[in-house]
Backbone:
């Protein structure tokens, strides 16, 4: 068994923490603003999902046979995507049953969804669907040409196709294929960074400062950062800006993680990103609903304290779920045979 690279798990741990932080306000109710959230979210929104694809490119072996590559990604991406989707619905049903008016819930509802519902919903987890198809796309591009500059050119063209289709709304974004086309560009960047690790070690700090100052400039002038999550907020004209912010933000996190080298909790989250990603939104919603059923904040300070409490408790629950799904039999649901 290959030894894990500590700082890669640290990167993934930081990124999944940013995902949870980004999702928290969607689940925290109330009429009061969250201190600094607009600033923090602006700092991270432009890069934290593309960064996952850069790290995936760094860690993935694209030299295996297509059959082996395809089956491995079904096992490690699509299988967990379906299985965790199933359990995720139980958490949402629990919230509805105990905290809201849900007399309509029946046993048959608890036993759903099945494969048909999963396919009808287009995979449900946009990131996992996009990751699977982006890896298949890049594998195909590598068969077409072995030169990295040509690979990047083809993938850049596919990014333009994805952005144009997303803006025109001309084709249904089934299984998030548009995100897959856009983000496949970042997979070879991870491979590229393997050869230029010393460059990041030497200049990563300077590049991080450039990124932070650029983001501050955009915040001051109230300019919008092009971003990609479940929704695609990128126009044809700002694709270059999206690429620049995605890569410079990724280098920043890359550099920070190498300075940290080791951090047990971040590494644990990094090893279990798929569980934390799959459950974070439903857990945040459940914890928020429970806390708001106990206490409704009536001032700014109380609201922000409750926000912090939702975040901390949710991270603890997500960490426990990660531990649970790594036990003897449940780990098979994550493709860990």
Residues:
């Amino acid at each position: 068994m290959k030894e894990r690279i500590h700082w890669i798990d640290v990167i993934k741990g930081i990124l999944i923490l940013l995902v949870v932080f980004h999702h928290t306000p969607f689940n925290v109710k109330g009429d009061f603003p969250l201190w600094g959230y607009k600033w923090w979210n602006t700092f991270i929104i432009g890069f934290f999902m593309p960064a996952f694809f850069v790290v995936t490119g760094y860690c993935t072996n694209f030299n295996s046979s297509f059959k082996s590559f395809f089956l491995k990604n079904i096992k490690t991406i699509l299988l967990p995507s379906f299985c965790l989707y199933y359990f995720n619905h139980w958490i949402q049903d629990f919230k509805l049953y105990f905290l809201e008016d849900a007399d309509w819930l029946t046993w048959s509802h608890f036993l759903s969804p099945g494969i048909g519902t999963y396919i009808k919903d287009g995979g449900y987890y946009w990131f996992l669907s996009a990751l699977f198809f982006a890896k298949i796309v890049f594998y195909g591009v590598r068969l077409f040409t072995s030169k990295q500059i040509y690979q990047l050119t083809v993938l850049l063209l596919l990014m333009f196709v994805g952005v144009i289709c997303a803006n025109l709304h001309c084709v249904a974004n089934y299984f998030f294929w548009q995100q897959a086309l856009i983000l496949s560009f970042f997979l070879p960047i991870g491979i590229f960074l393997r050869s230029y690790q010393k460059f990041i070690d030497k200049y990563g700090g300077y590049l991080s400062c450039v990124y932070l100052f650029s983001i501050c400039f955009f915040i001051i002038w109230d300019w919008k950062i092009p971003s990609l999550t479940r929704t695609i907020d990128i126009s044809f004209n700002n694709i270059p800006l999206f690429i620049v912010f995605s890569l410079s933000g990724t280098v920043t996190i890359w550099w920070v993680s190498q300075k940290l080298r080791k951090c047990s909790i971040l590494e644990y989250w990094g090893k279990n990103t798929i569980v934390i990603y799959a459950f974070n939104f439903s857990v945040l919603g459940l914890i928020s609903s429970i806390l708001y059923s106990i206490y409704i904040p009536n001032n700014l300070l109380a609201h922000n304290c409750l926000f912090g409490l939702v975040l901390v408790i949710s991270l603890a629950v997500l960490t426990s779920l990660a531990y649970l799904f790594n036990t003897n039999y449940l780990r098979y649901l994550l493709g860990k045979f």
